[in-house]
Amino acid sequence: MSETPVENAPEPTEEDVFEQKAVRLAKRERLIAERGSAAGGAYPVTVPVTTTIPALRAEYGELEAGAETGVTAGVAGRVVFSRNTGKLCFASLQSGDGSRIQAMVSLANVGDESLARWKELVDLGDHVFVSGEVISSRRGELSIMVTNWEIAAKAVLPLPNLYTELSEEGRVRSRFLDLIVRDQARATVRSRAKVNASLRATFDQHDFVEVETPMLQVQPGGATARPFITHSNAFDTDLYMRIAPELYLKRAVVGGIDRVFEINRNFRNEGADSTHSPEFAMLEAYQAYTDYNGIADLTQELIQNAAMAVAGDTKVTWADGTVYDLGGQWDRVSMYPSLSEAAGVEVTPDTPLEELLKLAEANDVDVPSHATHGKLVEELWEHFVKQHLTRPTFVMDFPVDTSPLVREHRSIPGVVEKWDLYVRGFELATGYSELVDPVIQRERFVEQAKLADRGDDEAMRIDEEFLRALEHGMPPTGGMGMGIDRLLMAITGLGIRETILFPLVK
Q1: Does the predicted model carry a pTM greater than 0.85?
Q2: Per the annotation, does 325 bind a ligand?
Q3: pLDDT the model gives residue 458
């Protein structure tokens, strides 16, 4: 049984898949009988590859049609196309990066028995090893004129139709298939790796130290979010999956690691949508003796360098073809003045909650539960201002009651030295002049505890161990946090479930 992909062919039914699996399992048994289970049967422990498909394409990709090299190579790849004729069989072998080479299996080179075995045993999706001369076919396709071949791994389920786009749901549920059939999926994995390498290189240029902090914590902190709860049998206690590494990284600064960063996983027991995932990769960094302006400069450099690493330019092209400019010096606007201008009414840190509620009601703005001045100001700002931001923009100077870990502004009463960076219409990163006064930090934690007592599940708790660290003296510090998944979204234009290799799905 040989399968050849046909353009616009329908997807196989469950009955078709069942029948194909049965046929393939029979071929597996035949391979075991022929080769013996000790030799691996349909799954040998290794095959004698001498090079890779990408390496051959790099060296011989420009061969003229009909050219011969006299060079023998042994390569392996997944069969993604197959055409069997009387005395000559063709197959496209694909490597993990999507590179392909043609395998030509001819009667003249392999003999009757080997050609017959190829036709009977090789299916789409199988991993196959071939060796032979590197040539260019009469049509100019880089090929191996096969003299020897063997099954490297037998696929017992068929591939999806390579000419039919997988649905988004199908892509995220079966990412392994997505990686086989779709160039963009493979490119996104490599783009993510380039981004992480670029971030680390930029930090290295600025003498930062990379560390790892606990993911299991005795109490959550560092963000306003609902945590996941688990249980330690060894300690017989409940633990929390971390919502942010902030409080531990600040301990490192107290201990003398003046420039520190971490790239790792965070977990928040909240909703999932186009920009949120319950499990996500996060970058956080802290630099002693700078402030939120200095950390904004660093963040811009980190993102622009990452764009260069992926796209070769700060002008990136998104998946839908849109060109977005991440270059230049980014805008910085202040939250209260920008809200006042957009709403047509002055809003200040002293505006009473009652007036904010009236403004929200008049403009059909949802009022958050446990509404405070700061929460409502941020909701109003998102309603009136966010949609009009087109360039990357640092939104500066937030309400004090929504930012319990941030230093009060040095010259504007009622706000803190915090920014959020908006790119492509969503929040990409946040940065602070860090609050380092342990007395004020305790007061802020107490206020958060009061919100928690009133039912706010996202409010922070008093962290005595962190306060004890602050009491030993933390230098003036700027800090920032940025979602790696969202950074990929900003560079590629993809949704969050596309930028995460294996996203959580129901």
Answers
A1: yes
A2: no
A3: 66
Q: Cα–Cα distance between 412 and 409 in angstroms, integer?
A: 5
Of residues 315, 314, 319, 290, the one with CA closest to residue 302? 314
User: Does 427 belong to an annotated binding site?
Assistant: yes
Domain 14-153 architecture: Beta Barrel (2.40)
Give the number of residues written for the chain: 506
User: In the prediction, which pLDDT does 277 show?
Assistant: 87
* 206: Cβ contacts below 8 Å, ≥ 6 apart: 259, 287, 298
Q: Which CATH number fits domain 181-330+391-499: 3.30.930.10, 3.40.50.300, 3.40.1000.20, 3.40.50.2300?
A: 3.30.930.10
Question: Looking at residue 39, what is its pLDDT?
Answer: 66
Of the two residues 239 and 17, the one the predictor is more confident about is 239
Which residues have C-beta within 8 Å of that of residue 505, sequence separation ≥ 6? 169, 172, 173, 497
Count CB-CB contacts under 10 A for residue 470.
22
For residue 123, what is the enclosing H or E element? none
Q: How far, in Å, CA of 242 to CA of 220, rounded?
A: 6
Cα separation, 166 vs 173, in Å, equals 11
Which residue carries 């699996």 as its tokens? Answer: 21
Helix (H, G, I), strand (E, B) or coil at 335: helix
- The CA distance from 491 to 57, in Å, is 28
Residues 453, 361, 426, 206, CA torsion sign: negative
Cβ–Cβ contacts within 10 Å for residue 172, how many?
19
Residue type, 295: I
HSE (side-chain half, CA atoms, 13 Å) at 469: 17
- Give one DSSP letter per residue of 168-182, joined into a string: HHHHHHTHHHHHHH-
Same CATH topology for 14-153 and 181-330+391-499: the answer is no
- What is the crossing angle of helices 292-311 and 183-205, to 10°? 140
- How would you classify residue 344: left for phi > 0, otherwise alpha for psi between -120 and 50, otherwise beta? left
The C-alpha atoms of residue 279 and residue 269 are separated, in whole angstroms, by 9
- Region 263-291 average pLDDT: 91
pLDDT of res. 14? 80
Q: Report which residue type is found at 424.
A: R
Q: Domain limits of the chain? A: 14-153, 181-330+391-499
